[in-house]
Every structure is written in structure tokens, then in C-alpha cells.
Automatic annotation (TrEMBL):
Transmembrane segments: 20-40, 174-195
Protein name: Capsular polysaccharide biosynthesis protein
Domain Tyrosine-protein kinase G-rich per the UniProt entry, residue ranges: 142-194
Membrane topology label: Multi-pass membrane protein
Family affiliation: Belongs to the CpsC/CapA family.
Boundaries of every Polysaccharide chain length determinant N-terminal domain copy: 3-93
Main location: membrane
Location within or outside the cell: Cell membrane
UniProt keyword terms in alphabetical order: Cell membrane, Membrane, Transmembrane, Transmembrane helix
Amino acid sequence: MEETISLKELFLTLKKRLSLIIIIAAIATATSGIVSYFVLTPVYQSSTQILVNQAKSDQQAYNVGEVQTNLQLINTYTVIIKSPAILDKVIEKEKLDMSAGALNGLVSVSSEQNSQVVNITVQNEDPQQAANIANSIATTFKEEVTTLMNIDNVNILSEAMIGENPSPIKPQPVMNMAIALVVGLMAGVGLAFLLEYLDNTLKNEQDVENQLGLPVLGAITTINMEEEAKASANMTSTLGARGESIGS
């Protein structure tokens, strides 16, 4: 016999396990909030920009071919900026207690399409150190590129600076808690349906018919003797009171 599940049954299952779903979602949200606010270390980000462009005098004309050459060099510069040749010198200048590989993981280099501006972004637990490292990378690269590439076409466009109240880029507690809430609700709903699926107890006449494939001829209701005794005592006292009032 093929079993079918109605939307009403699904709704009743969710209603039956509503407290479980709420508890799981609340625990997931609270755990995410505690971890985000008190366990994870805030990470700050700072960026500087360099311009890949040969310095020109007033007599020099604008050269499209030179611009294209600068654009093509940006891909090479991106690799050089994150290379040990630059990062090792930055570590020495800033007296950083990390390897070039570890610093490489904190640095990202990007440029807009067809743009001669290169962005150097550094992430660090200390906002001031993030800005110092970004500026040091830019200045070191500008100094070293002349020797490495025999080209002097790099200028620092803007230095990395920190505001009065810098905000960390991660973790984002509100976002993390919202995600945890959604995941908690999904987990709670899934657990509710799993428990309902694993529950093979017979609760009503319909369950008996589905299990045995036979019609139910009769049902015995559950009798609570304490409630019946109280009801009988109340009825007796009521009849007694009525009898007394009639006799009087």
C-alpha cells in the first residue's frame, strides 16, 4: 500500500516539533554570536595604490603604445610584488615575525581592467600594522623594480591610512548569526522530520489500518480513573445539594 503525505501532516509534524526547531536555531545563533564576538580575532584591511606610468616632461607627447606596454607589465608586477624578493625586504624593514609565505597570504594585488592603477591590499589583526605593511610593500616595490626590470615607471598614487575608528572586515557577527539562524532552522526542520520518520509507534486507528492493512472494527478510549472519581464525587455532591434544597 503506497503511503502519501499531505501538507497537513507536514504542518502537524512541524507544529509538534516546533519547540525542538526553535531550541536548535537559538543554540546555533547564540553559538555563532559567542564565537564571532569573543573567540575569533578581528582582522583589519588597508590598501594602497601605485600607478604604472612613465614620468613625462611637458614636451613629451601621449604615447598609446607605451600605455599598452604599461598595462601588459602590470601582470608581471603583480607577481613581483608578492615575490620573496619584495616581501623579504618588507619583513626586514617592518621587523615582522613571519615568513615571506605567511606574509604572501595576507597580501592581495589587483588592478581594474585596462587600468594602470594597481591596488595592494593587506589584512592584519592590527590596523596600523596593516597600513604600515601596505605602504612598505609599495615603497619597496618602487625601489626594487628599477633594478629588477630596469624600468622606472612606478609611482605611489595613494598611501594606506587608517581612520579614527577602523572597523574589522571579519568576522562579521551579524552576518554570521543570520547564517547560523538559517542553518539552525534547516537543521531543526530536518531533525523534526527524521524523528517523525523513525517514530514507528501506533498512535491512532489510521496507523493500525496502515500497518496491518485491516479495517478497525472498534476502539477503546483511555479512561482516567482519578478524573472519573472526581467527576463522580462532584456529581454526587451536586445531587445531594439539590436533594437537600428540594426537601427543605
